[in-house]
Design goal:
Largest sheet: 5 strands, mixed
CATH class: Mainly Alpha
CATH architecture: Orthogonal Bundle
Structural class: alpha+beta
Shape: globular
Number of helices: 17
Strand order of the largest sheet: 1-2-3-8-5
CATH topology: Cytochrome p450
Number of strands: 10
Helix content: 40-55%
Number of domains: 1
């Protein structure tokens, strides 16, 4: 029996330190148990701690989330007032701090950044991207031992997501490795300041390279977009693209593979052709989205939502996982249903979701075709989920396979 330290009823704006701890290993291991307990105790709005001493409100009601996501006037994404209230070494600050990009701005600036990103991503050739994923996946699979065990996180999903995003952006691998190290430092909250420095230096070199040697890639298109982004703005558009293109893509591939390997509805169905990889992806995007809690906004002033006062300038986090599984919307069957919030909604909805679907589906299909006898190397309950307030991520996914 799993127990969860859900505190007594309180307002999300209350400074009470007995909040739901999103960073705990217990939450990482059993998030759906926590979401059910949160809903029973609080309803749609839950007082949480992102890390020790950093309070926020977690939204687990689907309709409440839709209302917030479509109301940027009252719920802007700009964190600058909030970040003045947290210490410089706050572990989540590097993820949440203001940057000159679409993710962390509202109004005119958001529209400007969004236009540049959408145009640059929208010109990705999806047919060429399909061929790119196939080309990059094949040598990874061929590098697996003739028969034995392989970790699909470190030996497949991460290097594939890394290589594909480098190709789309137009980044040489040697620069990309430094970018990936910087992004990892931000996600893990370890040496995040060094991670920011590493990111800025590596992406500055990429921008200089694209000025000298333009290509048919996202970085070049951002550089020449009519919005005339300056170098700092270019760096921070690329930070978002890498942040969304490696860790979440890796987790989407891995979480879907876990479902296929452990659920007879999908394992038997996909391999026999009755269900598609796309159906498995949509199941995961409902139940275990790779970014479970995000889409952060900061109310301009205290605001009453669902009979709860939310304080001004404090983080309001949308739980995509919690909202997707809200009993109030009555979602029971996920096959063919894409009403989930895994890509967010409203003005900040992900502009790269079509490409992300394609990459994950091709990555999984390639692996299933090459290793049809693949199975988990350990019992599912022995797998470890990485703690953290935002992601839904396995530390490893070991599998065994015959050749």
């Amino acid at each position: 029996m799993v127990t969860s330290p859900i505190p007594h009823h309180q307002s999300p704006g209350d400074p009470d330190d007995r909040r739901v701890l999103l960073y705990s290993p217990e939450f990482a291991a059993h998030p759906h148990h926590f979401y059910r307990e949160m809903r029973r105790q609080y309803g749609a709005l839950v007082p949480v701690d992102l890390v020790p001493g950093v309070p926020a409100t977690l939204v687990i009601g689907y309709r409440t989330a839709i209302r917030i996501l479509h109301d940027p006037e009252h719920f802007p994404a700009d964190p600058r007032a909030w970040q003045q209230t947290v210490p410089a070494d706050c572990p989540v600050l590097p993820i949440l701090e203001w940057r000159p990009n679409a993710l962390r701005n509202s109004g005119i600036e958001h529209a400007r950044y969004r236009q540049a990103n959408s145009a640059s991503i929208g010109k990705v050739d999806l047919h060429a991207l399909h061929a790119t994923v196939d080309r990059l996946a094949a040598p990874l699979i061929n590098s697996f031992p003739e028969a034995g065990t392989v970790d699909l996180v470190d030996e497949y999903a991460f290097p594939l997501a890394f290589a594909v995003v480098n190709d789309m952006i137009g980044c040489p691998p040697e620069i990309g490795y430094e970018v990936a190290a910087g992004i990892a430092a931000l996600f893990e909250g370890i040496d995040a300041d060094k991670g920011n420095v590493l990111l800025a230096e590596a992406l500055s070199r990429l921008i200089a390279l694209k000025r000298a040697e333009p290509g048919d890639d996202i970085a070049t298109r951002l550089l020449h977009h009519p919005t005339n982004l300056d170098d700092m703005e270019l760096i921070h558009q690329l930070v978002v693209l890498y942040g969304a293109g490696i860790e979440p893509q890796q987790n989407l591939i891995v979480n879907t593979l876990l479902l296929i390997l452990t659920d007879d509805r999908f394992g038997g169905g996909i391999l026999s052709g009755s269900l598609s990889t796309r159906d498995a992806l949509d199941e995961v995007l409902f139940t275990d989205p790779p970014i479970a809690n995000f889409c952060v906004t900061y109310p301009r002033q205290p605001i009453l939502i669902d009979h709860v006062w939310l304080p001004a300038h404090q983080p309001v986090i949308i739980s995509m996982a919690g909202c997707n599984n809200d009993p109030a919307i009555g979602v029971g069957e996920h096959t063919g249903n894409r009403s989930h919030l895994a890509w967010s909604a409203g003005s900040h909805a992900c502009p790269a979701r079509t490409a992300a679907y394609l990459i994950a589906q091709d990555a999984i299909d390639q692996l299933l075709d090459a290793l049809p006898g693949m199975r988990l190397a350990v019992a599912p309950e022995k797998l470890t989920w990485r703690p953290g307030p935002f992601h839904r991520a396995l530390a490893a996914l070991p599998v065994v396979f015959p050749r």
